[in-house]
Amino acid sequence: MSLFEYALVGGILYGIFFSLIAIGLNLVFGVMRMINLAHGQFVVLGGLGASVLVEHLHLNPLFGIPLAVAGAIVIGYPLYYAVVPRLQQSRDPEMLSFILFFGVAQIIDAVSIMAFGPDQRSLPGAALGSGSISVLGQAFPDSWWVAALVSVLAIVGLYLYFARTKLGYATRAIMADRDEARATGINVNRVSALAFVIGLALAGIAGVFVPYLLGSVSPSDGNSFTITSFAIVIIGSLGNPLGTIVGGLVFGLGTMMMQTYYASWSNLVPYALLLLIVLIRPSGLLGKAVRHA
């Protein structure tokens, strides 16, 4: 029974964290109708940025959070205005976006390896607390709880943006129907650019905690994060941020259950869940609810 409780609590913490990793990808798709294949690379940049803060400036890795937000602004706005408006005017923006963001991912991979080296980087566990917190008799390190807390705060912040701000209302209108939103006078490009930057910032913030949840981060991890994020988004519902939270929890619980009982099969969890959802419920676990909202 203790193994099940360990997998249950660990799976929830793991799932909350991966919800944060994936929710930015879903936000960008919901607004722009494009899959950002460089999403995982921005997760990695968040982790590498945190390692620089700790190793070279001797700062707490939590300072990586504002650094991730600043990096998303500096990189996101120029990247968006340089390529996305032109893609939107093309005949097949979805396919072209695959090619373009794949290229961006390869560039980030190459630059990251040149700047940081190919080796994996870890962070001192004591930086986020040297103790542990027990739930249901199962102890998990402080860093896992801090990662889950920051993930919840970031997701709540995104919810408040959607529910309490004019830009959030405009974002939801664009997600519902881009052309109608433009017809009502919404500056679609301005709002989409902001959503793109928010998506990158959320990815970067999640990246700060990757070394704690996964043990290390390296410049070559980006594609893996993109694939896992995509699986989580499909499991929940493509274009629905709430579905990403559900998808993340399903992924987290499934992964921890497999790691606990059949560790050698755990890497197959995202792909097995993705295949299962596509076969049984192609619109995702919350897809139908979104369609009738």
TrEMBL record:
<feature type="transmembrane region" description="Helical">
    <location>
        <begin position="144"/>
        <end position="162"/>
    </location>
</feature>
<feature type="transmembrane region" description="Helical">
    <location>
        <begin position="226"/>
        <end position="253"/>
    </location>
</feature>
<feature type="transmembrane region" description="Helical">
    <location>
        <begin position="65"/>
        <end position="83"/>
    </location>
</feature>
<feature type="transmembrane region" description="Helical">
    <location>
        <begin position="95"/>
        <end position="116"/>
    </location>
</feature>
<feature type="transmembrane region" description="Helical">
    <location>
        <begin position="41"/>
        <end position="59"/>
    </location>
</feature>
<dbReference type="InterPro" id="IPR001851">
    <property type="entry name" value="ABC_transp_permease"/>
</dbReference>
<dbReference type="GO" id="GO:0005886">
    <property type="term" value="C:plasma membrane"/>
</dbReference>
<comment type="similarity">
    <text>Belongs to the binding-protein-dependent transport system permease family. LivHM subfamily.</text>
</comment>
<keyword id="KW-1133">Transmembrane helix</keyword>
<keyword id="KW-0472">Membrane</keyword>
<keyword id="KW-0029">Amino-acid transport</keyword>
<dbReference type="Pfam" id="PF02653">
    <property type="entry name" value="BPD_transp_2"/>
</dbReference>
<feature type="transmembrane region" description="Helical">
    <location>
        <begin position="6"/>
        <end position="29"/>
    </location>
</feature>
<protein>
    <submittedName>
        <fullName>Branched-chain amino acid ABC transporter permease</fullName>
    </submittedName>
</protein>
<keyword id="KW-1003">Cell membrane</keyword>
<dbReference type="InterPro" id="IPR052157">
    <property type="entry name" value="BCAA_transport_permease"/>
</dbReference>
<dbReference type="GO" id="GO:0006865">
    <property type="term" value="P:amino acid transport"/>
</dbReference>
<keyword id="KW-0813">Transport</keyword>
<feature type="transmembrane region" description="Helical">
    <location>
        <begin position="260"/>
        <end position="280"/>
    </location>
</feature>
<dbReference type="GO" id="GO:0022857">
    <property type="term" value="F:transmembrane transporter activity"/>
</dbReference>
<feature type="transmembrane region" description="Helical">
    <location>
        <begin position="191"/>
        <end position="214"/>
    </location>
</feature>
<keyword id="KW-0812">Transmembrane</keyword>
